[in-house]
Fold:
Amino acid sequence: MKASDSGGASTQAQQCCKNCRFFNGEPAVLEASIPGLRVMGSAYSAVVHNDGLCARHDRYLSGTYHCGDFQAR
Amino acid sequence: MTQENTTVRVPGAAKPPDSPFSELFKKEDWWSIWIGLGLLAVAIGLFFYTATGMGWIAVIPSKWHALSDLGAQLLNDAPRYVALFVVWGALLGLALKFLGVPFKAFIVSFAFIYVVAILIFALGQWERADYYNLEPPLVALALGLLLANTTRLPHALLPGLRVEFYIKIGIVLLGATLPFTLILWAGPVAIVQASIVSIVTFSVIYFVAKKCGIDRRLAATLGAGGAVCGVSGAIAIAGAVGAKKEHAPIAISIVIFWAIVMIFALPLVARSLGLPTGVAGAWIGTSEFADAAGFAAAQTYGGYAGKVPGIEGSSEAAVTAFTLMKVIGRDVWIGIWALVLSLVATTRWDKTGVNGRAGYAEIWYRFPKFVLGFLLASLILTAITQGYNFAQYKSNVVPHLVAPIKNLRTWAFIFCFFSIGLTTRFSDLAKAGAKPFYAFSAGVLVNVLLGYYLSTQVFVEFWVKLGQP
Structure:
């Protein structure tokens, strides 16, 4: 399902990374995937907000990002 | 049949949104506030309704001469140490359970950390400790580094190694030992000094990185790691700009390397220059890269006060100046850095196939909330001690209210410093490559020199005054 297939602001807001099946923002997963993160930082920290890893684009990004490859969980 | 097969998917549909209050129990920043302010509330209650306040449970080792003295006092105070373990274990374990860490796994790990923390704390109280430079923060760090890099630590130890969580609780408790008027007086100067250094450092790292041909998103991630708040700055900006998966680990590796170097180097150089404690704390706050690392350096330097000839100022001044500079001057601005860089990345930099939607709310979302606990703790303690004159404050409030809170803060810091060492396994860190390392190191050079100049020349009178009793 491509993001461009459906319109409307609310749909676009729903089709952001944090709701996509390619995205993983679980803190435990982030700390296991990002070497050194828990040494002097934390995935449970407020500064991380809703960031996560995108397996589709191989990026670490905010859950509010979006793209044309969105697939609902 | 699996869950995958039975779930009915509606294309484009989102999972139900979390309650706006769920964040209050899902982020360690908020838990550090609940625990810090909770302990403060109990300390205040006991101060008003008992003769000795929270002193019984906030036990610390006393000065000792011979091992037999130490053994006797530890045995005598054993029930207090057990009670303190129960309090810390219950509070931290409950918080981490909400974050998804099983209580049993945590408490086993924490028991080990607590026992070693007692030994490190006790070693620092040895009457010859100063002579051998056995400052508890450095001992905790060095011991942890040695264990982590020469042995394969059991996985059972990992759940208790929460560096950031311990340091945030310590910072909230630190707020309760600082008058709010001091924060109002010194905060603006700290913000000015820290802002100058942050902007210059970020610019140097970013432009050197660009000159080296490094991707803009990695350049920004490195810049924030060096200029704002270390690992936290790097990970926040990596997310805000949509960095490649490998960018954050590269920046984090370099930040950790330089942060560890600076823990040992800054107190050593400041000591050889005989800097007053307030001045050294301001320099460390400007030039260290991570909160936890900076507290280790500042607390070490504060420990020299009154012990190393030529070092003027109170022992608390180093930590106070560091906190104002790092927490108030640098950390709180991470949301603004994230918003600006996210907007620039989305509108000006090369397209990556993903697009950002940053808004002003980003500033609040990424705001390090534990700072609110720090400020609130300071405000509460300042308000309830308003009615005491100076003599009453010294004879009653300090020993029965402020000192126990300070003891609990020191425990939190030692848990943190030992955890830094145990989690820093150099072979597990990402290989950074030469160019990112050079770019970051250029920023380190400028940061250290500029921070030194501002702390010892431009604002020196201010920081010296902070250290006067």
